[in-house]
């Protein structure tokens, strides 16, 4: 461990009030760069920043947790930030999976049923009956492709992203756009469903 790292650690242990700001200013950017190289395709760059700042703040609050005899300060902070980052990514993955599971069933009432949802198309005759009606409801090829995915029980956002040609957008924006289009299709199908139910 170099002289500066040893000295800043000793100052933190001694309660030097200027040491925390000096530490953060000196090490924030190097830590971000190291973690960014290790995780080049994060879904949200803010996750990386939060993990690094959390690791720094944890060390500043309790500098005694660091043992200079075992590891360099940079290595210690990288390891701590990496652990925080992995936890954050796991949490984000669980959140995304929950959102996807909620979005899977997101179409409202339509022809001959109280609700048009992916889960309702469990028989081929039911799916075919709705498919025959779709060209009358949707004239846009993209809309038809989207509804076909839903009817087929497609559960991945990636498939809808492909149809909408959204691969150039950030992941969060892709999800928002997919949801926006699916909500629009839902309203169209709801209007169609009500008209069908009122028909003699």
Q: Summary?
A:
The chain is mostly helical and 200 residues long.
What tags apply to this protein structure?
about 200 residues; mainly alpha; 2 domains; 8 helices; about 0% strand; rod-shaped
Number of strands: 0
Mean pLDDT: 76
How much of the sequence is in beta strands?
A: under 5%
What structural category do the secondary elements indicate? mainly alpha
Model regions low in confidence, pLDDT < 50 over at least 5 residues:
101-122, 194-200
Radius of gyration: 26 Å
The total of helices stands at 8
Largest β sheet strand count, sense and barrel closure? none
Question: Approximately how much helix is present in the residues?
Answer: over 70%
The total domain count is: 2
What's the end-to-end separation, in Å? 83 Å
Any idea what the shape is?
rod-shaped
Which H/E pattern describes the elements? HHHHHHHH
Commentary on this structure:
This protein has 200 residues and is mainly alpha-helical. The protein has two domains: 3-94, Orthogonal Bundle (Rna Polymerase Sigma Factor, Chain: A), CATH 1.10.1740; 105-198, no CATH class. 70% of the residues lie in helices and 0% in strands. The chain is built from eight helices and no strands. Helix 1 (3-13) packs across helix 2. The longest helix is centred in the middle third of the chain and has 32 residues, at 73-104. The protein is rod-shaped. Residues 101-122 and 194-200 have low confidence and may be disordered.
Secondary structure: elements and pairs:
Elements: H1 3-13, H2 19-38, H3 45-61, H4 73-104, H5 124-137, H6 141-151, H7 157-164, H8 171-198
């Amino acid at each position: 461990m170099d002289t500066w790292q040893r000295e800043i650690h000793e100052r933190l242990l001694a309660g030097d009030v200027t040491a925390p700001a000096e530490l953060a200013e000196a090490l924030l950017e190097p830590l971000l760069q190291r973690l960014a190289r290790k995780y080049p395709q994060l879904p949200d760059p803010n996750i990386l920043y939060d993990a690094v700042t959390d690791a720094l703040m944890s060390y500043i609050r309790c500098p005694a947790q660091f043992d200079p005899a075992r590891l360099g300060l940079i290595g210690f902070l990288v390891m701590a930030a990496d652990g925080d980052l992995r936890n954050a990514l796991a949490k984000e993955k669980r959140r995304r999976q929950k959102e996807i599971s909620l979005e899977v069933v997101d179409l409202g009432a339509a022809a001959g049923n109280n609700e048009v949802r992916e889960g309702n198309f469990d028989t081929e005759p039911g799916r075919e009956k709705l498919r025959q009606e779709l060209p009358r409801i949707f004239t846009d090829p993209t809309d038809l492709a989207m509804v076909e995915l839903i009817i087929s029980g497609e559960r991945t956002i990636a498939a809808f992203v492909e149809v909408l040609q959204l691969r150039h957008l950030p992941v969060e924006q892709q999800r928002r756009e997919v949801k926006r289009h699916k909500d629009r299709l839902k309203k169209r199908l709801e209007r169609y469903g009500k008209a069908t139910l009122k028909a003699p």
